[in-house]
Amino acid sequence: MHLARSFALLTLLVTGSTLAEAADPLFSPQPLQNASGWIVTVKGNLRVGPSYPGSDEFSVIGYPSFSIRRAGTVERFSAPDDGLSFSFLEESAFRFGVVGRFQGGRYLQDDRRLFGLEKIDWAVEPGVFVEYWPLEFLRARAEIRRGFNGHEGFVADLGLDAVQRFGAFTLSVGPRLSLGDSEFARTYFGVTPAEAALNGQVAAYRPSGGITSVGATGAVSYDWSPQWSTTAFVTYKHLVGDAADSPIVQRFGSEHQVGLGLTVSYSFGYTP
């Protein structure tokens, strides 16, 4: 399943930093009081999800990540399916900056039924994001990204999260909407006449861009201490439109895309 290669590339992508400049009631309420300089949060992530877009089989991947913020500030809420973000503008209710995501590839080793279909390499998706809190418990976020390597298309993810804290627990849940242009759709859901002839089980198919999926994400976090926390989450995407009608999805995969994950976080103070 090319996990070793995906692990190395994903590690490079997610090992970044996010600077939070000011405390805000929308975020986690307990900063590390004794830290000076910076607070570094190191995370270990374990995720289970479809082997490739539209697949009905699952892959497991683990990777590290970290974030950094000024001492005395509190950590912003981040949904588990957010891309890696770096803010240029950060106010109490509004953020804007750059974002990046990693998209795994599609390989014959993942599913032997893909014989004859072109291999799709891993992709990185840099872009921009905007985030707004219209209410103290409600966050809206949009990401627009462009793929490189595995696909060359434009994609967008829109989400809304209701966030509520109950003591050491933080619960979040909200809907998701994903879009992709024709280049993205044809890469992952299209079938050329040559591929159809070689595979013998799917017909040629040329999808158009548009809405690719609708779904939801839910998460629960628990703060064991100001240093340690864990987050468990589930994501669901229902493929729609041309993505759902793809013969790859209909013959080999599923319109229902489910993901599970667990993150363990440790925060500590650092003074250069």
TrEMBL record:
Keywords for the protein's UniProt record, in alphabetical order: Cell outer membrane, Membrane, Signal
InterPro entries attached to this UniProt entry: MipA
The UniProt record lists the keyword Transport: no
Keyword Membrane in record: yes
Region forming the signal peptide: 1-22
Domain of life of the organism encoding this protein: Bacteria
First-listed, main subcellular location of the protein, grouped into a coarse class: membrane
Pfam families given in the database record: MipA
Subcellular location: Cell outer membrane
Family: Belongs to the MipA/OmpV family.
PANTHER family: MLTA-INTERACTING PROTEIN-RELATED (PTHR38776:SF1)
Protein name as catalogued: MipA/OmpV family protein
Organism, scientific name: Microvirga arsenatis
